[in-house]
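Re: [help] complex structure
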Amino acid sequence: MRVAPYLLSLPALLLFAGVVIVPLVMTVLLSFHDWGQYKGIEPVFVLKNWQEVLSDSYFHEMFWRTFRIAFFVTLLAAMFGAPEAYILNRMKSPWRGLFLLVILGPLLISVVARTLGWALLFGGNSGLVNKALISMGLISAPLPFMFTETGMVVALAHVLMPYMVLAVWAALQRLDPQIENAAVALGAGPFTVLRRIVLPQVMPGILSGAIIVFALAASAFATPAIIGGRRLKVASTLAYDEFLNTLNWPLGAAVAVLLLVALIAVVVGASRLVERRYAQVFG
Amino acid sequence: MAFLTLEKLTKKFGTHLAVDGLSLDVEKGEFIALLGPSGCGKTTTLQMIAGFVEPTAGAIRLEGRDLLATKPAKRGLGIVFQSYALFPHMTVAGNVAFGLEMQGVAPAERTKRVAETLDLVGLGAFSGRFPRQMSGGQQQRVALARALVIRPNILLLDEPLSNLDAKLREEMQIELRQIQRTVGTTTILVTHDQAEAMALSDRIVVMNQGRAEQIGPPHEAYERPATPFVANFLGKTNLVNGSTVRPEKISFGPSGLAGKVRTRIFQGNHWLYQIDTDGGLVTVIRQNTGEAMPVEGAAVHLVWTATP
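Output below.
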C-alpha cells in the first residue's frame, strides 16, 4: 500500500475531523442528554428530546413551515433566475458584464445588511413596497410583509437568486452555440426553441441550482431571524432560541440534527433523481 | 433562370468587408462548393442564405422569389452544422422528426419519413439512441438525415466533415455524394479543404477576401486556374520560367531542364521530389509504379508540356 497520498491528505482530514465531524458528533450526542430548568444538562442517554421533537405539533409546524418556505423560495428563484440567466447569456459584451455584476454584486454584501434593507422596504403599512404596489393599483390595502412567510420568501428569494443564476448560466454556457439556429432552420419559432430546445438542456442546471437554493433557504438563519422575528420561527431560529434563550441545549441539538438529516435526505434524494434522469442524455 | 441566385451579395462587419459583392447562379440539383481559407467569407455567405446573418447589400433569390423577405424559420433550408448541433436531449428519431413536427406533418407520415431517411443514411437501427451514445461519423449522418427529411429546397453544409478523421472523411465524402445524387437536392458546401470541394461538387467557387476568384467545375479550376491564388489554393504549383506547372505534370526525361535531386519523400502511392534547377526549386510528384526512381543527389532532366 502506498502511504504518501494518505500522509499528504492527513492535515486536511484532521482539520475536517476537528471542525466538522467532532462538533457534529458532539451535537448528536448532546441531543440524547437530559435537561432540566434547575439541574441543567445531565450527560445521560434519554430519548426525551427526540420524542418531544417528533411528537409535538409545535415542532411539526415549525419544520413544515421551514420546508414550505424553502420550496417557495426555490420556485421563485427558478422562475426569475432562469430567465434572468438566459437574457444575460444573450446580452452583448459590455452589458453582459455590467448586469452580471448587478446580479452577483449582492453576494459581496452581508446577508444581514441585505435583509435589513428588505426590512426597511417592507416595514409597517407605509413601507416602500406597499406604497409602490398601492400606487400601481395592484393592491388596495397594504400587505403584511414583516413577520410573515410572504416577506421571508421574498427576502430569501432575493438573497439566494445569484446561486440560481450562476447554476443556469453554467448550463447555458455548455449549450452548442448553433443549436438555436439549428432549431430555427427546421422551422421552430422563438417560443418553441425555448421550450423544446433550450429549456430541456438547461433543466439539469435549474435543478442543481434548485437543490442549492433549497438547502440554503431551509438552513438560512439571518433572514428568517430578521424578517420573521421571534413570532414566526423556522427550524434554524428555533434551534438558536433553544440554545441561547431557553438554554435547553439538548432540545436545540435535536432540532438542529433533525434539520440536518432532513436536508441531507432531500438534497441527496433530489440529486440522485436528477442524475438518474439525465445520465443517459448528458452524462 | 437559375434556381438560386446571389446578386452582388455584400456583408460588412464594422469596416471589415466579409463578403464583397458576390454573385452566383446555382442550378436546380447542382452541388456547389464555396472553397477558401478561413476568413474568406464563405461561412458568412452560407449564413446569409440561411438567414442567420443579414446582408449589408445585395439580394438572394430562390426560384425568383426574394429569399431575404422570408424569415429563417420559413426558408425551408436543410442545414448541417460543423458541430452538428444535434439536440442532445432527443433521440435520433426525435432529432430527425423535429423538422417534420414543425411543418405539422401527421405522426404516421412523420414516422414513415423518419425511418426512410434514417435508412438512407444507414442509421435505420439507431433511431432510439441519444446523440452522445454515437460516434462522430454517426452523429454526422443524423445531422444529414435531420436536414434532408424536411425535403429542403437547398441543403447547406457548413464544414460538415471537418470533425472526422481522414479515413472516415473520405468514406463520408463518397457517401455524401451518393446521397446527394439520390435525393437530388441542390447543395451548397462550405469548406476550406480543396480535396473535399473537388471530390464532391459540380462547381467550385474559390473565395478569397470576400470575393469569388473563380467559379467553375473542379477540373477546370484545377487545370486552368484564373489567378495565382486559385492555383495555389487548389494544389501544389511550380513557377518555372514564368509559367505555372502542377508537380504531377512534370516527369523525368533524357533531356530537358537540368537539375539535381535535393530531397525525395516516399508517400506510398507517389514520390515527392524537390529538384534544384537553374529556374529555382521545382516540386515533382511521380506515381509509384514500382520502378526504380532517381535518388537524392542524382542529376535529372525535367520535361513537361506547357498548359495552354
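Chain A touches chain B through 22 residues (CB under 8 Å).
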